[in-house]
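Question thread 4412

I'm putting together a teaching handout and wanted feedback from people who do this every day. The idea is simple: show students a protein as raw sequence, then show them the structure tokens that encode its fold, then repeat with a second protein so they can compare. Below is the first pair exactly as I plan to print it.
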Amino acid sequence: MDNISQMISVIKNAGMVNKKEIEIPLSKFKLLILGILKSEGFIADYEVEEKIIKVKLAYKGKTLLINDIKRVSKPGQRIYRKARELPYSKRGLGIYIVSTSCGIMTDRAARKKGVGGELICEVY
């Protein structure tokens, strides 16, 4: 199974049962994605312990701040977009995480820099 898809599944499942904290295997790519989720306010915090990332999920009342998170580009079918072709998530309320030549960033940052790349996932 794809590592990013596994992380997304763990986050979705934890939200359904109102877990406050989850543990996922360590990966540099996952850390970059979690950094974006934290800066955008979708998760509360994360920390690295040996070979595990402990992620504290953000809630508003009893509802998870991540309404939905979907994997867009899959290992079997990569989806690339140019900067001017990057889609808007839920009319600007959500974000796309994009892997560009300048690093991992949100769709807004990629448009601002004028770079396209691979659409990793959509979060709203």
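The second pair follows. I'd like the answer to focus on this one:
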Amino acid sequence: MIAIVNYGLGNIKAFQNIYNQLDLSYRVSCTPKDLEDADKIILPGVGSFDHAMNLLNNSGMRDMLEHMVLVKKVPILGICVGMQMLANSSEEGVTKGLGFVDGCVKKFSGDEFGELPLPHMGWNEVDTLNVDGIYAGISDRAKFYFLHSYYFECEDNAHSVASSDYGKRFSCAIKKDNINGVQFHPEKSHENGIQLLNNFGRL
């Protein structure tokens, strides 16, 4: 059973529609008890880092989420801000992240990115550097939909499994053991996104 964490942010209905289409069992989880029997967890997110972390912290689900992921080793997929929340911290705010994958969320700014419009919005190619189960059946340089102004910089480059380009290359997908994250929105990425969510649901 896939638990879709509903702490007040994210395209919950879009995930429901896709998993209904794929005939995969899921639950929209709003309480710690809703997470207890999950064998996969999706952590969605939109908006700002601090707002998302504060909502999760106030939802009552954080302790159970940490137990499921860090102790029971249940696979988790963080999406967009949900991926950023897996980091230690973000330049967007002062609230601490979950710290599941060591790294900092940084803004597209400075000479290295030039005068790029923000947010980075639209379809971009994704280069898969380290193909694993959730990317099965998806071609290298497949396009996914992005909407963000910040990116996840891993402390250990081995945890970056895919990259994209916006002024320079940036990590757009991470993996550490049972922990996965993608900066793009698979729920808005048509066939490629559906394939990724299907792969994750059937791990």
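Top answer:
Good format. For the second protein you could add a caption like this: The mean pLDDT is 93. The CA atoms of residues 16 and 183 lie 19 Å apart.
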